[in-house]
Design brief:
By secondary structure, the chain is α+β, with helices and mostly antiparallel strands. The protein has helices at about 25-35, 40-50, 65-70, 75-80, 85-95, 100-105, 115-125, 180-205, 255-270, 280-295, 310-330, 340-345, 350-365, 375-380, 400-410, 425-455; strands at about 5-10, 15-20, 55, 100, 110-115, 130-135, 145-150, 150-155, 170, 220, 225-230, 240-245. It contains 16 helices and 12 strands. About 30% of the residues are buried.
Length: about 450
């Protein structure tokens, strides 16, 4: 899996130039190369002028490998005929050079420019990468590379003689090679996060009913996470929280990232309370349930039950295949057999049930069913998986399965209370969100103060 990054610097006109990179963006590689080989604004600007990168290198020039054999040199027949030691020499040398999509592959030149640092920071909020590097001025009016994190700009140095001497903002990349120091830093950060979660839980009484001040965070070695169970101080609903020990936030300034993870976890759990369907879907869902019951009545058994819903699933597959075929025809495409589901679904259905479901499907297409106004597209849409990985009640994934899950567990799927905003009614979410917004505001103010120095060195 690649590690993306962005690189930005101050251009001659005072604007900010930024490019994306797509591989090896971590501190020990890209961070170190920037600090040690692109110290000046002039060289950093030449790097920006290359546009988007596959990977950074110590040299701006294209490698001998690319010059002789092109972008996909290792697939070139002439390259393959070279002796193994010559192939290795060229390949090793290639790692020392910048690989740029525009220059080396002929793609469009892509460079992002921003009026000033605040505009650049605003862009990073939604468009940043795993690692975001920025070159500005330090307080001595010299070029300085920084890692941009949630809480501000962190100056980067690479000095083995200064290990352990920098605290707070500055990051010494030489410490990445010192396992003892890194382990100590990790343990310190882990302890601080555990203490922060414990204090947060006690201050806002986020423990279980009857023991609201008792909150016990712990580190899970299996998953590399700090875990804690918070409880809503009003409803006492339990919210399991897992905090990842992020590799891209190497500082001890963790409050922003930890609160962000807590808010995301609580938000995700609250969102599952909302139905996957909308209130306007209820009439269609009720008709869908009637069709499901009708299929169950097809069975010549005492219980009148559709085992594992195979008959119903066959009908749904017929409808979804029909919709897929219509979309394919509309776009001039030809569907492959593996893209259609009805054939496989039919093999699970008894022949006499299949015959009746086929008749039901035909009547649906012709709108001949009494008291049923559902269309083929309606049935397909109600049984399509909801996008973005959202799940409903009891981890359901479609509107109809969510509706049925509530129904069989004695809930009223049409209860208006189910459609109420769960965030407004969650005291825990309100506490975490307010705290997080305060931290974001403070960090934003800090970044903007830093931006003044980074832009001018004063």
């Amino acid at each position: 899996m690649t590690t993306g990054f962005t690189i930005a610097t101050i251009l001659k006109n005072g604007k900010i130039g930024m490019i994306y990179g797509y591989a090896d963006g971590y501190l020990a590689y890209t961070g170190r190369i920037l600090v040690n080989h692109y110290q000046t604004f002039d060289k950093a600007r030449k790097l920006i002028n290359l546009g988007e990168l596959e990977v950074i290198g110590q040299s701006l020039d294209p490698s001998e490998l690319v010059l002789r054999y092109g972008w996909n040199a290792t697939l070139n027949d002439s390259f393959k005929k070279l002796p193994q030691d010559e192939q290795k020499r060229l390949y090793d040398d290639n790692r020392l050079h910048v690989s740029a999509y525009h220059r080396d592959r002929g793609e469009e030149l892509r460079i992002n420019t921003f009026k000033n640092i605040p505009q650049y920071l605003n862009f990073l909020k939604d468009n940043g990468s795993e690692f975001n590097y920025f070159q500005g001025y330090n307080s001595n009016n010299k070029p300085q590379w920084n890692l941009v994190l949630n809480d501000g700009f962190h100056p980067l140095i690479d000095d083995i003689n200064s290990i352990g001497k920098f605290n707070g903002q500055a990051l010494n990349l030489a410490e990445l090679d010192n396992d003892e120091f890194w382990d100590k830093q990790f343990e310190q950060k882990k302890s601080l996060i555990i203490e922060f979660l414990k204090t947060l839980g006690q201050e806002y009484h986020l423990g279980d009913e009857g023991q609201t001040d008792e909150v016990e965070p712990f580190y899970d070695n299996t998953y590399g996470e700090v875990k804690v169970n918070f409880y809503d101080p009003v409803s006492f609903e339990e919210f399991p929280i897992s905090i990842q020990m992020s590799s891209d936030d190497v500082t001890l300034n963790f409050v922003h990232s930890v609160l962000l993870q807590i808010r995301h976890s609580v938000s995700k759990q609250l969102s599952h309370k909302l139905p996957l369907y909308k209130h306007d879907d209820l009439p269609k869902l009720e008709q869908m349930n009637e069709i499901k019951d009708e299929i169950s009545n097809f069975y010549c058994t005492k219980s009148k039950e559709d085992p594992r819903n195979v008959g119903f699933n066959y009908l749904v597959a017929l409808c979804q295949d029909q919709k897929a075929q219509e979309n394919a025809d509309k776009n001039g495409l030809v569907l492959q057999d593996w893209e259609l589901d009805a054939k496989n679904a039919s093999q699970l259905v008894k022949p006499y049930i299949k015959k009746k479901v086929d008749k039901l499907y035909s009547d649906l297409k012709k709108q001949k069913l009494k008291n049923i106004s559902l269309t083929i597209n309606d049935i397909s849409e109600l049984n399509d998986e909801v996008s973005c990985g959202k799940t409903g009640y009891y981890d359901t994934h479609t509107k109809f399965s969510d509706y049925m899950s509530r129904l069989v567990r004695g809930q009223n799927p049409a209860d208006p209370a189910q459609f109420a905003d769960p965030y407004l009614n969650s005291k825990l979410y309100c506490i975490i969100n307010k705290f997080y917004e305060q931290v974001v505001m403070k960090d934003t103010e800090h970044k903007l103060e830093q931006a003044v120095v980074l832009a001018s060195g004063k």
